[in-house]
Amino acid sequence: MTMLEKNAATDVSAEQTRPAPVFQPPVDIYETDEMLVVLADLPGVKADELAIDLENDVLRLQGGANGEAEGEPLLREYQLGRYLRQFTINEAIDRQAISAELKNGQLTLRLPKAAKAMPRKIQVSQA
Questions:
Q1: Where in this protein does the record put region Disordered (predicted)?
Q2: What confidence tens digit (pLDDT) does each residue in 7-64 have?
Q3: Nearest residue to 78 (alpha-carbon basis) of 67, 91, 92
Q4: How many other β-carbons are positioned within 10 Å of the β-carbon of residue 35?
Q5: What's the CA gap between 58 and 113, in Å, rounded?
Q6: Least C-beta-crowded within 10 Å: which of 2, 9, 11, 125?
Q7: In what helix (H) or strand (E) does residue 27 lie, and over which residues does it extend?
Q8: What are the phi and psi torsion angles at 48 (to 5°)?
Q9: What's the mean pLDDT when you consider all of the chain?
Q10: How far apart are CA 126 and CA 28, in angstroms?
Q11: Per residue in 48-63, pLDDT tens?
Q12: How far apart are CA 72 and CA 93, in angstroms?
């Protein structure tokens, strides 16, 4: 089992009062010795419109983009809606140290590895 697994089930349990698409944002995941870094594209989403929750080993990202245009649209190719993406994480992640930053429509999640999961070098002493 990997430290971060995509949760295949797309659970949209929140009731919607009007039809709107739910997008699964694309992500890139990188691993260093100290942490996993998740980059997610969330165009149009503001920090106060984004919720990141960790419950029962599931890290859930959800938010929405509200496009406020001036006037009536003549052509609308860019779809707005809700974003939902979730991942299952295991005990190798330090849950208390997870951090998130949203800048220019890109979310950066940093998931530090727990001390027991970090690689370390063991010195051999001369007897």
A1: 1-24
A2: 444 444 455 566 667 889 999 999 999 999 999 999 888 999 999 999 999 999 999 8
A3: 67
A4: 20
A5: 16
A6: 125
A7: strand 27-31
A8: -75, -5
A9: 84
A10: 45
A11: 999 999 999 999 999 9
A12: 47
Q: Hey, which bits of 32-120 come out as E strands?
A: 35-41, 50-55, 58-64, 82-89, 99-103, 106-112
Q: How many distinct structural domains can be found in the chain?
A: 1
Structure tokens belonging to residue 72: 């009536």
Total count of residues recorded for the chain? 127
**Measured distance CA(62)–CA(50) in Å, rounded:** 6
110/6 Cα distance (integer angstroms): 16
Residue pair 36/30 in contact (Cβ under 8 Å)? The answer is yes
Total-model pTM: 0.74
The residue segments making up the domain with residue 90 are 31-65+80-112
> Is 97 within the bounds of a domain?
yes
Q: Supply the CATH number for residue 60's domain.
A: 2.60.40.790
